Amino acid sequence: MLGAGRIFVGGDLDCGVFLPGTTAEGIKVAVERLQGQYSLSSIGPAEAILNGTPLKEKRAARQGDVLNLGEVSISIGTIP
Q1: Residues with Cβ < 8 Å from 24, sequence gap 6 or more?
Q2: For position 3, what pLDDT does the model report?
Q3: Is residue 80 part of a domain?
Q4: How many CB atoms lie under 10 A from the CB of residue 17?
Q5: If you count DSSP H runs as helices and E runs as strands, how many of each does the chain have, helices first?
Q6: How many whole angstroms separate alpha carbon 52 and alpha carbon 11?
Q7: Range(s) of the domain holding residue 54
Q8: pLDDT in tens, the chain (80 residues)
Q9: Is 35 helix (H, G, I), strand (E, B) or coil?
Q10: Are the C-beta atoms of 11 and 23 separated by less than 8 Å?
Q11: Distance from C-alpha of 64 to C-alpha of 41, rounded to nearest angstrom
């Protein structure tokens, strides 16, 4: 569960959510929660894909969204 603030998801060992399958691609995503809203932004040399579209700028995350980090897919479940 993510409280207020930011967590990183990806293949770097410094990520709060480390996904070994994304290491080669260099994908890293910042997940932020502010005032009950979640947002995702791709950082790193490779882009993440949100619902089939490259994550080029910060976007809101919603229940049921699918985040692809290379070969890894994550289904988003939000907490109000």
Answers
A1: 11, 70
A2: 52
A3: no
A4: 12
A5: 0, 9
A6: 20
A7: 5-75
A8: 455 578 999 888 888 888 887 766 678 899 998 887 889 999 877 888 999 999 989 999 988 999 998 888 889 886 66
A9: coil
A10: yes
A11: 17
